[in-house]
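Proteins fold reproducibly. Look at a sample protein:
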Amino acid sequence: MIAAPDRLADATSMGAVTLLVGDLDAMTRYYRDVVTLQVLAAERDAVTLGRAGNPIVVLRHEAGLRHAASGSAGLYHTAILFESQAALAAAVHSVARNAPGTFTGSADHLVSQAFYFTDPEGNGIELYWDRARTEWSWTHGQVEMATLYLDPNAYLDEHLTEAVLQGSTAQDAASVGHVHLSVGDVATAKSFYVDALGFDATASLGTSALFVSAGGYHHHMAMNVWESRGAGPRMPALGLGRVDLTLPDADALGALTERLRDHGFAVRDDGRTVSFDDPWSNLLQASVG
């Protein structure tokens, strides 16, 4: 299916999330040994981690930066999508065993089952598994999501088999399913992410949160004001460095570039990637996957 000129291509997906970190070694240990990602590449100042060769998180050391002030715009969480409940259970069990103090909650969202954590430098993480799309409910283009109780111990009891404990899912693929941002206001977020960038709005919580996607996914990105209402553009700080979007072909990338420019947003195009800032100076980069 060819996307409308004002929409992102259906096959758009999320790429890696880059985090600017103060302690590269400690953050690498957390994402590798606790979250169960694998080191895919390591340089002096940057480490790329993922699963089955797919980059998920890029940690980039920035010694001169400090943490952002409370209430700032930026990353709310990076959501890592596992392909099976068993693989998700293995990752949750790893966090429970190695860093139990970083667990912040769990929920059944109807479309998915999710567990939430905070890494050693305060970046939010969601580890989740999707129900089949045939089980999602849509009404007038909006997907039904909720926040229902999900017992983490019962989940592990059900899905953490002996084979899983022995590492049967250790090489299973995972990916960035969605990225959730803290922003200053939802109306401005909608103007940028829906009207200019070309996502479809799939759900909203009044003036407090917006969920958007391409191709009928429940959400590839979300923006909320729960801890950041009224926030202005970000100052340089540790935390979110960049959000990557993967488009299916050069035509889709060209259409995105033209759409952003038509809406008055500056676009930096190096011939392979297109990068741009949202209204809160969150950096995004789009490329062909």
About this structure: The chain has a mean pLDDT of 96. The longest strand covers residues 13-21. DSSP finds six helices and 18 strands in the chain.
